[in-house]
Amino acid sequence: MKIIKNNKILITLSLGLAILGSQAIFSAAGPTKAPSAGILPFIKKGGTWYVIMGVRPQKGVIILSDFGGKTDKGEKPQQTAFREFNEETNRIFRNDKLVYMDEQPASYHPTYFYSLPSSVNIKQKLQELNADPNHELRGYVSVKLNDLIKTIKRSPNRNVVVHGWNGNYTGRYQVWPRCVRDILRPALPKLSRINAR
Prior knowledge:
single chain, alpha+beta, Nucleoside Triphosphate Pyrophosphohydrolase, 2 domains, 9-stranded mixed β-sheet
């Protein structure tokens, strides 16, 4: 613990504890976040890997992200991830067997990578989802995993824009900066291994 003393002011740098006179003020080292978890589903079609992402509004901007949300009391992170995935995709993949591939651990939002069977008609699924989107989402798109990896590597900042296909047409979408920072960029080696399968 490092302490700097200046008159009657003590500043504890490592704990973020400041004592001014006789009054103590406690502050956390960083913002606390509610526990949450998510899923990124992948599918391989014609030798190419795609990642399915949700389109959601975030502070006035339409962005792409994983499927996830806050953990309910008593839930384990993976249970949360599956519940949120099913809720946000209107349970359209409930009869499809998802296979675990990897995960990106995090203290507040672990993300699990699962593959969908290659037999899934992803065009039809996307069209159905986009015709009746979940109330939390504006739509659903598939993104070529190879393009996503290359774009993240080329982008030194968190502004990552990719082409996403919604089953009918292709558009340009920004990936949620927090998703890039906390999930995708740290997971680049794992995503590259998936892409090489």
